[in-house]
Design goal:
mainly alpha, extended
Length: 106
């Protein structure tokens, strides 16, 4: 959460120099690699598997809702950020791809 607040700077309290931004970027990359590679959620029984699936579904829906809201708000001011559109497309394609892969695998 601290990295997100530092990167976002919602109230413009500080204007970090290049070194601070490099440190924040490096920390963000390290956290992203840790989450992607090291942090594995493995269910031990069916109930826990259902909880993990529900949590994944909820986080996907919230992510899509936030990105869609961002695109909608930005479209009202005619300045849609291509990163938001790309994130939205990537989330949907990944969801469809994972679903197809699971159906073909099982």
């Amino acid at each position: 959460a601290g990295v997100a607040i530092f990167s976002w700077n919602p109230f413009g309290f500080f204007m970090p120099d290049a070194t601070a931004m490099a440190i924040a970027c490096t920390l963000l990359i390290v956290v992203a690699v840790f989450v992607a590679v090291v942090w594995r959620e493995q269910a031990t029984d069916e109930r826990e598997a259902a909880h993990l699936a529900t949590a994944g579904r909820a986080s996907f829906l919230v992510g899509v809702a936030v990105v869609t809201t961002g695109v909608t708000v930005q479209s009202f001011v005619h300045a849609v950020d291509p990163w938001l559109v790309g994130a939205h497309v990537a989330m949907v394609i990944t969801k469809i791809g994972a679903r197809l892969w699971q159906e073909l695998r099982h």
